Amino acid sequence: MNLLPATSSFLSSPVPWAVLAGLFMGAAVSRATMRIRNKANPERAGTRKWVFTCLFLSIAVMLGLLAVFIPGPSKILDVRLAWAAGSAAVLAFGALRFKKVVGIPIVVLLLAAVVVFGLFLQSIHAFTGETEIAAVRVISANATSMRIELVPRGSEPVLLTMKGTYFAPIVKVVIFNDFFVFMGARTWYRFEGMTSFDQNMRQQDSDFRFPHALGISERLWKLFEENETRIPGVKTAQIEMTSKLAKEFSTFGIRIKNDGGVQIVPKSG
Hints:
Number of domains: 2
Helix content: 40-55%
Order of helices and strands: HHHHHEEEEHEEHEEEE
Structural class: alpha+beta
Shape: elongated
Number of strands: 10
Radius of gyration: 26 Å
Strand order of the largest sheet: 3-2-1-9-10
Distance between the termini: 36 Å
Strand content: 25-35%
């Protein structure tokens, strides 16, 4: 893995693709509504008009598809992306269709506003985004033990019988500095297994460990742990064991936040 993943992660956000798609959509609409009656050769101007309209529209559709498939379909379900694309479309339409009225200074200001808005959306996603690494279904629970089904992301479910009343994932995380998070870096993790605690938060002796931990390798984790102050962009490397009360028939998601930390949140179903 590259030690500086953020340098190539910006385009993994749907925001740049949505803004570019909006700009080309605005350009297509501008061309489609352009008058040709006052042109010296209306027939030739009409042909050029629809050729460029189709070209800009095709590029807009292609960029829209890239906004879905490169970052992933789950990231496109955000109404703020529609605002970003719509603002870019209005900007491009106004700048190209009414050049004399809008003026270059206004176009520059509008373009700056779209860029700032896109960065704002990117920052929200960067610091509030998360990755679910596993689900936990509590089959039964009492005052001394619990029976849970652990469903790791991309792996087979595992049935566990554990002592205590609280369960906790054992996760080693590498947390990157805020700048790299803003540019698209996500917390790296190594999901090693599960542990449990009693009501007094004393750790029990019924830990479960994966035969092969999920995420980064142990060697890479050790490299970060031993050299975290010397590796550019790394804030810290640490072990997280966030605990949750096992409630019978409940389902929880174990999530890694983009800017570090592990969360266990209730899920429906």
